[in-house]
Structures are given as structure tokens and as C-alpha cells.
Amino acid sequence: MAVRYPSYNxxxxxxxxxxSEAEFRALAASKPMRDVFLAExxxxxxxxxxxxxxxxxxxxxxxxxxxxxxxxxxxLVGDSLTLADICVLPLLVRMSDLGYQRLWSDLAGVSHWLxxxxxxxxxxxxxxxxxxxxxxxxxxxxxHQARPESRRxxxx
Length: 156
Fold this sequence. Notes:
Elements: H1 4-16, H2 21-29, H3 35-39, H4 49-70, H5 83-97, H6 108-119, H7 121-126, H8 133-136, H9 140-145, H10 148-154
Helix pairs in contact: 4-6
């Protein structure tokens, strides 16, 4: 869930700011899997900086746990690719796409694991051209990583 907050702030909040408050609340209420999540979001500015920091901390904790294992093996459950690797990959791909590599760039095991995973033939199939947010929203990482006050004015 931690990846959702930065993703929504970076890519999707811009669409909500065009809605009236009533339209946004109706949209949130119509999404049974995301209603509570969206209710926490300000339609004009996205999620709070505190919420984004919380997400960053959760992702950092995940990367640190991964590093503990990846110091001694190529994959998360030994030396063979498993469902664990496949489940975590989209999280790091999305966060990398949004410019959050700093959350694991000092962790060699995680960085090398991500390189290995991205080098697999299946990666190009799963993350086909046009599937990344950075391919749909120009300069998304730079805009999202900008200071909060400048980000609000540039994402609309």
C-alpha cells in the first residue's frame, strides 16, 4: 500500500483537482477498495507530506529487509526466482519510475537484485513500452521530487 500514496500524488492527483469536491467525494465513495484511501486525500494537493514520508519509511524498511537476504543470495528466497521476487518487483519499479531510488541506492544487494530482475526477458513483457507512469506523464519523477510548494503549481 505504501507505493499508492506517492503514485497518486505524482500522477493522479492532477486529475482530481479539476473535479468539484462533491464529484471527488462521489468518486471516492464509488471505489469500495479505495474509498478510505481516497477520503484521506486532498483533491487539490494530494496526500500530505507526512503521509508521503510514512510511505518512504515503509519502503525503506522493505528494502532493508530485502538487503538482509540479498547479501547472501541472488533472490529473496534463495538462489531461484520465486513468487516473492515477482510480488516485490512492481513496487520497486514504480518507486524507481517516480525517482525514489535513494530509498535503496546504498543497498548493493537490492540494487543488484533490481538490475537482475529488470534484465530478465519477462521484465520487458510485463513492463511493456508505455506501461510506466514516466512514459505517460512527462517529467513525472522530476516534478514529484521537487519541493512541495513548487510541485503543486507544476502538476496541474
